[in-house]
Automatic annotation (TrEMBL):
Organism name: termite gut metagenome
Keyword Zinc-finger among record annotations: no
Keywords: Receptor
Lineage: unclassified sequences, metagenomes, organismal metagenomes
UniProt xrefs under NCBIfam families: OMP_RagA_SusC, SusC_RagA_signa
Protein name: TonB-dependent receptor SusC
Amino acid sequence: SSSNSTPLILVDGVERSFSQLDPNEVADIAILKDASATAVFGVRGANGVILVTTKRGEAGKTNISFSGSWGMSVPTDFLDFANSYDYATAYNNAQLSDGISPNQLKYSKEAIQAFKDHSQPLLYPDMDWIDYILKDYSLQSQYNMNISGGNETARFFISAGIFKQGGLFETYNADPNENFSYDRYNYRANLDINMSKTTTLSLTSGGRLEVRTEIGGGEDNLFTYLMDSPPMAGAGIVDGKRIVANKEYVGDYARDGLDTFYGRGYTRSYTHVLNFDLQLVQKLDMITSGLSFKIKGSYNGNYNLNKARNGSLPTYQPVKLADGGIGFQKSGDVGNLGYNESNGSGRNWYAEAGLDYAHQFGAHNVTALLLYNQTKNYYPWPYSDIPTGYVGLVGRVTYNYNSRYLLDLNMGYNGSENFAPGKRYGLFPSASVGWVPTAEAFLEDSDFLSYLKVRYSYGIVGNDRSGNRFLYLPGSYDFSLHSGAGMYRGSGYNFGTNINVYQPVAHESSLGNPNVSWETAVKQNIGVDVK
């Protein structure tokens, strides 16, 4: 897709993220790319599919497993920044090159010498902010316990895991919570029950609780500010006081390396994710051998709560005293603690029902699938009353002769509410052929080649996420001080009884296109499998 290249990620056959899945819960990961392989997933699989399968119980003795791992997060490398002496010397030289008089340079000879010999580190600091703020390492740990087992009637897999990761920033006793940290608690329970010889009920449930702590404006801003802070902008924490530069001696600076987080509070986010699937498979051998019916329902929900605490601490500027000592001029005070909460949630439902068929007629192997699926996503943040919805009908037939000649025929018929009535449904066919030369007599007894398959696939895939939602609808009118032609300095129009007041204007935000429909692409793949 020209606007979206994210592959479809399915965990146990349902679209959901696996970025924070406990690795101890995963049984298998498969990646599908060509149009024939992804056809059964409809338009959602246009950019490829990542299939993640979680572990399930097997009949036999009960197995109990425990694992633990410990590690460190270590900064790899940072740029080497100039120290105060080199910085000030280069700055003065630049000013001289610009024609500034020597007696008007930013850094005095006294400052240059103090930077060089570090004789007055409070008045003339020389800080390596990266080294001062970052720890050499942070610790992380992971623990997991799972239990699995069962018999021919029922099988189970139960797992619980904990992952903890500390932060890399020194807190300097302002507040131990003012650091980055991440804790994750995973849980899973998968159950399969043979209700009869022909009926199997499967329950898949899992989830996690994440607790994330961030300081300042997030790690990106912190590193930016750390690298932007000059080495003489402050002396760090001295006797519990945050010492910032006195502009009388070393100039004025917007911030030091501690400015964005020290004493400013933190944000703690709680995210709870719950996934639940229920599937029923009924064999229909009484109708014809190899036929089965499957119905599946899935619920995915998440809830996020953010608790932000903010405040401020005083800063101290060093000053020379008459007796030659150094005093401190206090600026600001301990600010009142601020507190703010915000929350959000999302949920989606998925349902599918289909018929599967698999049978062997001598050397002829035939499989077939007819599947209906439907998805509804609710994300009550910006559009609480406008969920996204998809419906799809999938058909697939595969044939192989003696595992030598292979043929796949696929069809997807999908609908999306992003388009106008009459444009919402699209048909997306695909086909693939394959040949296994090692199944032929002339290569059957090859000493150097155990398996060789040549395959070719052709298909048409579609995508409905080609821009904003509901592109067929015209946008609403905005009423604001909109800038545009005929306006004074972009502040609106001046008309009416008071010509000194500029009036807001109404303007159309966008035009609708009733002809917008599926973005389509043709995929062709040629592949060779060799073992």
